[in-house]
Amino acid sequence: MNFLAHAWLARAGDDDFLLGNLIADGVKGRDLGQWPEAVAAGIQHHRRVDAFVDRHPSVLAARRRAPAASRRVAGIALDLMWDHFLARDLATSDPHEREVVIERCYRLFEYHGAPQRLATMVPVLVREDWLRRYASLAFTCRAIAGIGSRLSGPNRLAELVPHLRDDYRQLDDDFATLWRDTRAELETSGS
């Protein structure tokens, strides 16, 4: 899962809990004592979601279908694809709540910023409206390739994009199962 999915799962929590979910990938280590309690709880929630998703049968199957040369980085691409499917689906199923959640995320990022590991990317994410634009497969694929250009070695994420397009229907089915199970297990009702 990426920003939008983590935000959606945490949206019933207060702003600090949501912020923790949004910045968790930029926070290293287990000691969260420097963070306010609700932010730390959000970081921990994000990590539980990631662990659940990474071992979900749909995700494992999707990774196995990826070309062998790109399998090591397939999880990065899948996280963005899950946000694509969610953004696409919410645009029609719950557009008002989607707008509320996205604007809340952007407000939190603008007010609090992000940890150093995310500090360069987050302002671009807000300015270029990535959370809405993930609904476009073309945008999501460009984002995946862009991340790959920042990794060392050959751009395995860019190489993976044609597979993602070819496997789109199966990935959509994988997401439906994954999202149903993740929501049942980890969607918050408040914090």
Key words describing this protein structure:
191 residues, mainly alpha, 11 helices, DUF479 domain-containing protein, lipid biosynthesis
Mean pLDDT: 95
- According to DSSP, the number of beta strands is 0
**How much strand?**
under 5%
Provide the number of structural domains.
1
Which structural class matches the secondary elements? mainly alpha
H/E topology pattern: HHHHHHHHHHH
Helix content: over 70%
Rounded to the nearest angstrom, the radius of gyration is: 16 Å
Tell me about the largest β-sheet: none
Runs in which pLDDT lies below 50 for 5 or more consecutive residues are none
Q: In angstroms, what separates the terminal alpha carbons?
A: 20 Å
Tally of DSSP helical segments: 11
Assign an overall shape.
globular
Protein name: DUF479 domain-containing protein
Keywords: Fatty acid biosynthesis, Fatty acid metabolism, Hydrolase, Lipid biosynthesis, Lipid metabolism
InterPro entries: ACP_PD (IPR007431)
Organism: Halomonas litopenaei
Question: What do these coordinates show?
Answer:
- InterPro entries: ACP_PD.
- Keywords: Fatty acid biosynthesis, Fatty acid metabolism, Hydrolase, Lipid biosynthesis, Lipid metabolism.
- It comes from Halomonas litopenaei.
- This is DUF479 domain-containing protein.
- This protein has 191 residues and is an all-alpha fold.
- It has one domain (3-186).
- The chain is 71% helix and 0% strand.
- It contains 11 helices and no strands.
- The protein has helices spanning 3-10, 15-23, 37-54, 57-65, 74-93, 95-112, 121-127, 130-133, 137-149, 156-166, 168-186.
- Helix 2 crosses helix 3 (37-54), helix 4 runs antiparallel to helix 11 and helix 5 crosses helix 10 (156-166).
- The relative contact order is 0.19.
- The model has no long low-confidence stretch (mean pLDDT 95).
